[in-house]
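Bench notes, afternoon.
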Amino acid sequence: MLFFSKFYFDPNFKGTFILITDVFWLAPVFSDLVFTLSFGVLYSLIKDSLPEGLVGGFLVGILVSIIGFVSPMLWTLSLTNFAPPVLVWVWVAYYAIFTTITAVIYSVGWNSED
């Protein structure tokens, strides 16, 4: 916490952080809730083994994208101004699509025995 406060109160980083009184606190709470629920659903899907087939690949890809990209960026954008929000959401969309396609390819293509 002390490390963070050193940057928060530094005048050089004044435009980087949102004032604590201006933070819309529902966004970080919603981000943590989405992360936790997505992780719980993902755990229940892969508890026994990874899902196979097209639907299983889409589910795993979407859940991993929410856990890895959407939730952290929602939390980060609500507390900082480190990048334009449109640029961040384009980055999130790119990696979410990439992760979903990779999960689908893995779940469909790795089932064959050669």
